[in-house]
Structure formats: structure tokens, C-alpha cells
From TrEMBL:
RsdA/BaiN/AoA(So)-like Rossmann fold-like domain mapped to chain residues: 10-395
Pfam families recorded: HI0933_like (PF03486), HI0933_like_1st (PF22780)
Transmembrane segments: 12-29
Protein name: Flavoprotein, HI0933 family
Classification via NCBIfam families: aminoacetone oxidase family FAD-binding enzyme
Keywords attached to this entry: FAD, Flavoprotein, Membrane, Transmembrane, Transmembrane helix
Domain RsdA/BaiN/AoA(So)-like insert: 193-342
Gene3D superfamilies xrefs: FAD/NAD(P)-binding domain, HI0933 insert domain-like, Translation factors
Length: 397
């Protein structure tokens, strides 16, 4: 990292996370004098903990439909101009090995450190300075740009980029500072809430599902007609796994979550055929065939289904099929920011340029990454947004 001799920069970026580092390298390559400031002791902490330590750094199938925002068109331009393939090429140029763990989802083969090293190397090559353990106490505007009162003294810049991320995982350095800056400069901040987060359950259901802790099964879960066909995991705290995390981003307190436990089966047809062909067979046997054993057993007990199928009336079978195909639960809540992967809401994009990420009324003030009201689905989309918005701002700041 290059040391600078004065306290004046062309670009100061607050936040040395995914978006901030990407923006720094991009602006640095344009010959801009760039400083990245972060209050944490190390850069890119969320990159390091992401994807179970292997960072799901992009999704080859990412489209704007994979993002939630009060202004759904906002993300289109940046995502189109910096694509998953562009980031893959960057990984290739640095010789990072990766693998596609699920369709489109690229993970480092070895460690998330590889992604962080690429970004830090790019910053070094672009002569962008990264200064950690520096807190920003105050931001004010002056005629040439912005003045920052920091723990390392006063710094000034022409362009200020806010890349402070969301509120999730406060122990990793997350703060609402970016929202404060937005409000200070008259921007709207849309209400925030935890997304991609496990559900907690009311005591009775939690107790009933307790024996299933650690069991996972593929489901189709939906909330407000947003369907996700992915695994669900029962934990000692509630329901998690990709399906539940995805649905949590669409869930509001009081909402129901609908879960098809056998999305690959035509349950009613199967059971009617089974009753005809093997009248002595039981629901437990049917469930055992299609669900993990512990899950089948506990679910059977939970529903109190007993006896051979020949004793079931058509209405009973219809009821069973409905229960399995549309198991409806009302979560007590979510685990909140403590474990959430992302923060929904944030800086209202209607006041930002979708081309540059700059405030429309203030072309030298930029907001990128998770601090803005653009939130991706699980599966590498959030990093893709961090890269794309970082590049868009880095090309302009
Ligand atoms: P990010 O949070 O990365 O960086 C913000 C930076 O700002 C931090 O370094 C912070 O210290 C700094 N900062 C905050 N306040 C400050 C202040 N007041 N002063 C100075 N600095 C300040 N996504 C994905 O696509 N694939 C994945 O595999 C995962 N996995 C994953 C796992 C877990 C456990 C979490 C919590 C999250 C993920 N994500 C993910 C989401 C992804 O990590 C997230 O969307 C991006 O890191 C957002 O990048 P940003 O640069 O916007 O914020």
C-alpha cells in the first residue's frame, strides 16, 4: 500500500469491505489518489467469513430479479456493466481456483482469503492506500469537496464514497454510520431489517421440532409468492438453511411461511395409488421413502398419523397431502442482525444515479454496496452487487 504525503486525496472511501476495495482499485487505476478508511483492525472481514470461509463470490446466473429494492430498476445498469464474468476474469488473472458448488454459485476452492488478497493486490497495484483502525468522527462539505475529522487527523477529498455496509454482524464492525451520512446530506434512508436470516419459532413448535435439530431436507418454501426450492435445516433455535434464509428476506413479522416438504412428489396421487396397490402400507413408510428418517418420524408423530392407508378416506388423504405440501408456520421472529447475512433497506436509491452511484444533487458523494437499498438473494448475488456498484462509482469518483 502506498503511503501518501499529504492529507488531501482525490477520493476517500469509507469502508474497506467488498464494495469499498473494488471501488478503490477502480478509481486508483484511473490515476486518482485514493484512500480507503476503516475503523476495523482488518479489511474485508465479511469476505473472510462468507460462504463458510470459502466466499461465494459471484453467481453466474445473477439477474436484477435476484435483488430486492424499493426501486427494482436501480441495480440494472451497474450489474449490466460489471458482470459475474468480469469478476471471474479477475479471479482468473490472479490464478484463484474456484468451483461451482450449486448451479451458478462460485466459491473459492481453498479459502475466502484468496478473494481478499486479489482485492488488496489490486488496490496496491492501483496505488490506492488502505488505512485501518481509523474512525471517522465527522464529515463536512467544503468548496472543493469533503472534509473528514478522523482519529488520524483531518483529511480532505474531492469525492467521498460511502461503503460502510449494512447492520448485520455488529461484532464484525457493522455500523449505521453510512445511514447517518446519508441523512446528514438530506437523503432518505428506508427502514432497515435483517435479511437472509434464520427464523425463530414459538416455544411449542420449537419443542416439537427439537429432536430434529441438525436435519436438513429439500423443500419449496414461499412467502408472499416468492418461492425458493432449496434445503431447509432444523436447528436448536428454529428453522434455517438456504430455503428459510431466502424466504426471510420477504417475511415481515406476523406473516406465514408455506413449506412444501415434498416438492418433487405428487403427494395426493402417490398416496391414492399406494392405498390401491399396497393397502397395508402406512404414511410413515411413505414419508420414510421421501424424507430424512428422523424428519419423517417426527413429522408423523407431530401430525398423529397412524394406521394403514386402507383406513384413510379420500378426505384424509387430501388433508395429509395438503399438510405435507403446504406446511404452514408462523415464525416468532428472526435471529436479527446478530446472524443475518444482509440488511434490507438502506439509502433510498431514488436519489442516486444508477450509472455512477452518486447522489443526483451532489455528484461527488457516492453510496455503494450494502448500505444502499439493494439486497441480493443468497448465492453470491450480494458480492456481485458490491463489485458492480464499486466499479460504477470507481469509474466516476
Ligand atoms: P462490508 O460489510 O463488506 O464492508 C463494510 C466495511 O465498512 C467494513 O469493513 C466495516 O468495518 C466498515 N465500516 C462500517 N462502519 C464504519 C465506520 N463508521 N467507519 C469506518 N468504517 C466502517 N454475500 C455473497 O454474495 N456471498 C456469500 O457467500 C456471502 N456470505 C455471507 C456470510 C455472512 C456470515 C455474512 C454476514 C454475509 C455474507 N454475504 C455473502 C453478504 C456480503 O458479505 C455483503 O453483502 C458484502 O460484504 C457487502 O459489502 P460492503 O462492502 O457493502 O460491506
Amino acid at each position: 500500500m502506498m503511503a501518501t504525503s499529504s492529507n488531501t486525496y482525490d477520493v476517500i472511501i469509507i469502508g474497506a469491505g467488498a464494495a469499498g476495495l473494488m471501488c478503490a482499485a477502480t478509481a486508483g487505476y484511473r490515476g486518482r489518489r485514493v484512500l480507503v478508511l476503516d475503523h476495523a483492525n482488518k479489511p474485508g472481514k465479511k469476505i473472510l467469513m462468507s460462504g463458510g470461509g470459502r466466499c461465494n463470490f459471484t453467481n453466474l446466473n445473477s439477474t436484477p430479479a435476484n435483488f430486492l429494492s424499493g426501486n427494482p430498476h436501480y441495480c440494472i445498469s451497474a450489474l449490466k456493466r460489471y458482470t459475474p464474468q468480469d469478476f471471474v476474469e479477475l479471479m482468473d488473472r490472479h490464478g484463484v481456483e474456484y468451483e461451482e458448488k450449486a448451479p451458478g454459485q462460485l466459491f473459492c476452492r481453498d479459502s475466502a482469503k484468496d478473494v481478499l488478497n486479489v482485492l488488496l493486490t489490486e488496490c496496491e497495484w492501483a496505488c490506492a492506500e488502505v488505512r485501518m483502525e481509523t474512525s471517522v468522527n465527522k464529515v463536512t462539505e467544503n468548496e472543493d469537496g469533503y472534509r473528514l475529522a478522523t482519529s488520524a487527523g483531518e483529511l480532505t477529498c474531492e469525492s467521498l464514497v460511502v461503503a460502510t455496509g449494512g447492520l448485520s454482524i455488529p461484532t464484525m464492525g457493522a455500523t449505521g454510520f453510512g445511514y447517518d451520512i446519508a441523512r446528514q446530506f438530506g437523503l432518505e434512508v428506508l427502514p432497515t431489517r435483517a435479511g437472509l436470516v434464520p427464523f425463530t419459532l414459538h416455544p411449542e413448535l420449537k419443542q416439537q421440532l427439537a429432536p430434529l435439530s441438525g436435519v436438513s431436507c429439500p423443500v419449496d418454501a414461499h412467502c408472499h409468492e416468492h418461492h425458493f426450492r432449496e434445503p431447509m435445516l432444523v436447528t436448536h433455535r428454529g428453522l434455517s438453511g438456504p430455503a428459510m434464509l431466502q424466504v426471510s428476506s420477504y417475511w415481515q413479522p406476523g406473516d406465514e411461511v408455506h413449506i412444501n416438504l415434498l416438492p418433487a412428489q405428487k403427494i395426493q396421487e402417490d398416496l391414492l395409488a399406494l392405498r390401491k396397490d399396497k393397502p397395508q402400507s402406512t404414511l410413515a413408510q411413505y414419508l420414510n421413502q421421501h424424507l430424512p428418517k428422523r424428519f419423517a418420524q417426527a413429522f408423523n408423530e407431530l401430525q398423529g398419523w397412524q394406521g394403514p392407508l386402507q383406513e384413510c378416506r379420500n378426505a384424509d388423504i387430501e388433508q395429509v397431502a395438503h399438510t405435507l405440501g403446504d406446511w404452514t408456520i408462523k415464525p416468532a421472529g428472526t435471529e436479527g442482525y446478530r446472524t443475518a447475512e444482509v440488511t434490507l433497506g438502506g439509502v433510498d436509491t431514488r436519489q442516486l444515479s444508477s450509472k455512477t452511484m452518486a447522489v443526483k444533487e451532489r455528484p461527488n458523494l457516492f453510496f455503494i454496496g450494502e448500505v444502499v437499498d439493494v439486497t441480493g438473494h443468497l448465492g453470491g448475488h450480494n458480492f456481485q452487487w458490491a463489485w458492480a456498484s464499486g466499479v460504477a462509482a470507481g469509474n466516476e469518483a
